[in-house]
Every structure is written in C-alpha cells, then in structure tokens.
Amino acid sequence: MTAYSTTSDDTSLSREQADFSKFKLERSWRHRCPVALRYLIALVLAGLAWVTTFGLRHLIDAPSFQTPFFVCAIVLSSWIGGAGPGIVATIFSIFAIEFSFTEPRYTLTFTFSEVPKFTVFFLAGAFISLLARRQRRDEEALLVARESLEEKVRDRTTDLERANRKLTEEVAERTRAERSLQRLNRAWRVRGLFNRSIARSADEPELVARVCQTLVKSSGYRLAWVAEVDQNRVVAAAHAADDRFERVAEAWAADGPGYPMATRVIESGLAFSWAQRDRKREEPGDPWSESNEVKAVLALPLISDDAILGALLLYSGDGDAFDKQETDLLQQAANDVAQGILLFRARAARASAETALKKTRAELERVSRVTTMGELTASIAHEINQPLAALVTNANACLRWLDRNPPEMDEAREAARRIIRDGKRGSDVLARIRAMLKKQDPIREDLAINEVIDEILALARTGLDGVRLVKDYSARLPLVHGDRVQLQQVILNLVLNSLDAMKVTPDRAPALSISTGVTVGGDIEVAICDNGIGLTEEQVEKIFTTFFTTKTEGLGMGLSICRSIIEQHGGRLWAVPNGDTGVTFRFTLPVALL
Length: 594
Hints:
By secondary structure, the protein is α+β, with helices and mostly antiparallel strands. The chain has 16 helices and twelve strands. The strands form three sheets. It has a five-stranded antiparallel sheet with strand order 2-1-5-4-3, with helices on both faces. It is rod-shaped, with a radius of gyration of 62 Å. This is histidine kinase.
C-alpha cells in the first residue's frame, strides 16, 4: 500500500476556495441586498447618467449626445437589481431625456413624433432588463450548484484526508509489524544457527568465534563480540564485524567502547540495551556508536546453571532493533551458547582429568610391575647367575685349551662361542627385566601370544620349581595387537597369583596349566588354571575391585590393573572357580587386523 499525497489537492482546493470567496463577496451586495435598495440604486444610477449627460452636452457642445450614459445606467441597474430596477431606470431615463434634452426643454410634453423613439428606447431597456434577470437567475443557480458542489468536495476531501491518514497509519503500523517480524525471524534463525555451531565446534574458542561470525555474516549485525572474565578483567574472547568495522574491531583496546557495558552485564546478570531513539535530547550518547552509524546496542549475559560465564554484545544499524520480543529470543540464544561453553569447559576438564588419570594408571601399572618383579627376585637372580656361571666355566675351559702344547684352537674357539652365547642369554634376561620396569608409553604392535607367555615363564622359572607345568598352546594362532609389556604384566600377575594360591595347599602337589585357543567369536583366549585354595562365588567379582585382596600381604591393585589393561586392549578378564581345587583365570583379546 502507498499513502495518498495531498499536497497538490490541498493547493487546488485553496485556489478554488479563494475564487469561491469572490463569488460570495459579489453575492453579498448584489444578490442579498434589499429590494428597495436595488430600486434606489437604479434611480441613483439613472440620475448620475442624467447629470453626466447634461454636463457633457454643455461641455463639448454636442446637442445630439443624449442616450449613452442612460444605456449604461440601465445595464448596471439591471445587472445589480434585476428586471424591475432596470425598467425603473429605463422609465426614469425616458422622462429625463424628454425633460432635459427634447424641445421644448424642461417640459414633459410627449409629441406623436417622439413616441417611436421612446418606444424603441423602452423596449431596448426592457430587453436589457430581461437579459439581466435571466443572467441573474443563471448566476444564482450556478452559485447554488457551486456551493452544493463545494460542500460535496469539502466533505469528500475531508473523507479522503481521513482515509489517507488512516491508510498512512496502517501502512506505518504494517511496516513496523513486518520489520518486527523480520527481526523475530532473524532471532529464531540466530538461535538455530547457534545450536548448529555448538554441534559443529570442537572447543570453546571455535564456538564463540562461530557465534560472532553467525551474528555478523548471517544475521546482518554490524559488530558482535563475546566478553569473558580473565583474572578479574573483562577481555574479548572473540569478535566479528562487517567490512566497515573490521579495522575498528581489530584495534579495539581493553578499555575501548563497550567494555563498561559488558562489565555491567557480567556484574548484574541482566541484559542491557542502548538506542538513539530512547536517548533524551540533552543526554550524551555513545560517540563511537554514533560516529559508526550504530543505532542500537544490546548486551546479553551468558548464563548457565545460574553461573555468569560472560557477555554477548550486538551492534545494529537499525534504530528499532532489540525490542522486548527480539531481546527475549536473543537471550534464549545466548543461554544456549552459555550451555555450549559450559559443555566444552566440562569436556576440557574431563579430558584433563582423563589425562591425569591415564598418567596415574600408567604409574600404578609400573609400580605394580616393579612390585611383581620384586617377588621374582630369586628367579631373576637365578636367571642371571646361570649365564654368569657358564661364562666363568667356558672362559676357564678356553684358557686350558690355549695352555696346551700345541694349543687346541678348535676347542678354544668352541669355548669362546659358548661364552658369547651365554653373554647374550644374560643380556636378554636383563633386557626383559628392563622392559618390564621401564617407564614409557604403551607401544601397540602385532604379537604372538604364545611367545609372550613363554617369555614370562622364563622369568618365573625359579618360582615354578616343583610345580607341574602343563602348556596347551593352540598351533597357528592369529596374532593379537597390543603392548608387549602390558600383556606380560597381566600374564605374570596371574601366574604369580596362582603360585601364591598353591603355596597354602601343601597337601596337594602344585599343578599349573596354561592354554591358548580361539573362541567361538573369533577372539584369542588364554586360560591359566591352578589347583590352589580357590575362590568363593562372592570373591569371584570382588577380587577385581581396587584394594581388595585375599593375601595377608598385598595392595589389592594387581588384578584391578590387569582387568583395566585387558579392557583397554578390547578384551575381557574374568575368573571361574574350579570347585574345591583352585581357580581358572581367563582373558580374551581381539585378533589383529591384517
């Protein structure tokens, strides 16, 4: 819709009203004067014509000059007064001419020869009077019609002006409603884009950067920035601006415009807005906003779970922006952002806690390995002592072969080879021990589980003296993907637990069985079975709880760490009682991907 323009109509109406005022002025003395006055005017005009004619005749010495001024008097009398005054003026003129200008003068004696002349004069005057009456009637009819038309035009103009004002108000209201609807739609779109940004962001800095970009690039705000508190000081965590404001935003100092507003919002937890339309004429405004064509500013607190995390500030070039409905929707969007910030902070805290927990778990695993290796001190000493003793024996033999005359070089070389072999065997034992005790990050690789088990049995050889060991390995087992040291720790811990359980049953010959195979699901399974004291149904699950132990000495950490290691490898560890004769520990590991 478009409002009608009334400027030209008002101008033409004023002109017509001025013309009509002239008609009303004419009617006021011609059409509304009393009847007697009309006749008096006719007599006066005829008298003036008589006097003027009389004077001019003597002045210019023109005896034949008689009727012109009388004719004018008749015409004026008829035009002013109508037919009656015109006829009166005609009769008065006839008598004046007869009395003053016809021989014999100064008498009213009409001769027969004068009758035609005065008859023609009278008929002419009557004709003029009748024409004047007809004109007067037409004028009066025209005036009546004009007044009626003017009244209708005036009424119509009033109606049109009223309709135009109403239409203008409706158009203005509709424009305001459309702009308000556009702002509300924009606020809803902002909230949806905020939620999408939360879902797509990886951390808090990326989220607040996406939020600012969304407000400027997708929603049309001039400038947007997120304020946070860092060491009791408000700082800009992220910002975005259109091309005209990018340089201003980049150069924004810590004490720049907007920081007092952000501080106020963060301290109070309440939204705050500034608009040029609301500022009083004598009230100072924001010079920065005015100079950069910013008409409205809105500062929203970022609140989540009653905690104020910061503030979101928006700068708009629309002076009608940030009404109550738009502010409420934008506050909801800001609350969504605050929830996202809190979520990312919780994720960061959880990641930090998980990292610390991972470090602690790795340290506990190393401590457990050291503790476990401490229990193998005798076995380790035996394993190292054997190659050392062999080294000494072979070295003495080598010397004896060389002392012979002639020296037995072949035998000496063989003794030297045995020395090298025993040295490597001792080095391998030390390497295995060092790997078990070394503090390092897990290294995943493809492993043959049977070899891992044999390496542990070699370390525990002394502890296995007097124990009947049965190994039932499945041939051609698929490889597993894991950390060698961690899997060795699990197997060593389970073997030592079995040895400890069999020490308290001296009435039975200790027997340990270790088997490997493939489960129905395709995983590798390792089973370690003993005939020791065994476990009750209640103890089967408790033994994997941290700090629970059935030993008189021990921390109760070993089996808990073992289960954690197996689960990190994607497997499962559990215990199955063998009735009254021991327990079987089983664990599974997924097959390595080719």
